[in-house]
Amino acid sequence: MRVFVTGASGWIGSAAVAELLQAGYEVVGLARSDRSAAALESVGAVVRRGELDDLEGLRAGARDSDAVIHLANKHDWSDPAESNRAERASVQALLDELEGSGKRFLVASGVAGLARGRASTEADPSPSVGPDAPRGGTENLAFDYLDRGVESIALRFAPTVHGMHDHGFIAAIVAAAKATGVSAHVGDGTNGWAAVHRSDAARMIRLGLEKAPAGARLHAVGEESVPTRRIAETIGRGLGLPVTSVAPADAVAHFGFIGAFFAMDLSSTSLATQGLLGWTPVGPTLAADLEAGAYYPV
Q1: What is the pLDDT of residues 180-218, one digit of tens each?
Q2: Whose CA is closest to 272, among 143, 130, 161, 119?
Q3: C-alpha–C-alpha distance, residues 16 and 11, integer Å
Q4: Angle at CA of residue 194, ends 188 and 199, nearest 5°
């Protein structure tokens, strides 16, 4: 089976590519740079040069493959509108090419904004609708094609997909601690973040490709709710910094863009996903990765 993967050289994508190759799939990875292309070639993937704005290249990649896993995103936090625009356009191009094919299309999204006052579940529909919504509303756009011959599946990732050399949200929180000299949480720090190890997320993607029915919402979540105060305390111990609280109104000023997310409760469950796929997260916890030096020397 030939699988076209966008974001193939990224943090989640590179782990997913390795997982798919090990399982015997032929993987075609989208690569924007020479460095990304070389990394994909070194593990045995086929390289398709291009980027998210190369819509014809995306269509060709989908046309020449048996399934598509869309993990790429510009993630430009200085211009989220541009990231949303590019995401919407790229997914629209892929879906238009896949229409009527019966092929599987797995699209990345997240658990943010799915529920208030409780942990989100796979039963929660995404509230993001339309091109101006977060991620361009692409989860719902993909589901619009279920009755148009596309087997769309949503891959919802925890806010932290952690592991050695992670450069995502937790790395941004660690960077803020180093810059300010304190390891902070927002408010009382009782709001929780879901978390998943990178290896578990990659395995869930493969199992989703193999087992999930069209229309499924899959949650890549290993830990349902890690209190943000505990995250701050673990970072503080690791860096030898005092732990403090910042007011919600000061979160963005203290942390940068990540402050808006660190102030949110992003708890989520994956019980339905685990039951559907026979998937059990077994990777290290977020605390274990922090203590093992995934984000700073120990």
Answers
A1: 999 999 999 999 999 999 999 999 999 999 999 999 999
A2: 119
A3: 9
A4: 145
Structure tokens at 30: 């989208």
Which DSSP string corresponds to 100-167?
A: TS--EEEEEEESTTS-SSS-B-TTSPP---STTSGGGGHHHHHHHTGGGT-EEEEEEEPSEEE-TT--
Is the pTM here over 0.85, yes or no? yes
Angle at 202 between CA 197 and CA 206, to 5 degrees: 145
Q: Are 201 and 262 in contact (CB under 8 A)?
A: no
Per residue in 221-246, is it b (16+ CB within 10 Å) or e — as a string? bbbbbbbbbbbbbbbbebbebebeeb
Asked whether residue 83 falls in the same domain as residue 191, the answer is no
Alpha carbons 235 and 102: distance in angstroms, whole number: 47
Tell me if residue 53 falls in helix, strand or coil: coil
Residue 296 in domain: no
| Share in percent of the chain as helix, strand, coil (round to 5) | 45, 20, 35
pLDDT digits (tens, 9 = 90+) for 267-281: 999 999 999 999 999
Tell how far CA 233 is from the center of its chain: 25
Containing domain of residue 251, as a range? 160-195+223-291
CA angle 18/75/169 to nearest 5° reads: 75
Is residue 131 a part of any domain in this protein?
yes
